[in-house]
Design goal:
mainly alpha
């Protein structure tokens, strides 16, 4: 069996690389998440979700511009 048979050697799009970078940064640093209020209580408001989405979109844009500067 060829060890490289399942590997796609085609170049990846900048958007895909930026998305992977964004996911890594967001998951390892908690980027954009609000601090929890403690003791099992969370303020899961729609405003908090919108702000989190806005932070993630901003991070994706920053990652994409960094990838394109290469």
């Amino acid at each position: 069996m060829d060890p490289l048979s399942g590997i796609n050697l085609a170049p990846r799009r900048d958007e895909d690389i930026a998305l992977d970078m964004m996911k890594f940064i967001a998951s390892t640093t908690g980027y954009g998440k609000a601090a929890s209020s403690g003791a099992g209580f969370q303020s899961g408001t729609a405003k908090g979700a919108e702000e989190y989405a806005t932070h993630l979109l901003e991070l994706f844009g920053r990652c994409l511009s960094a990838v394109r500067k290469k």
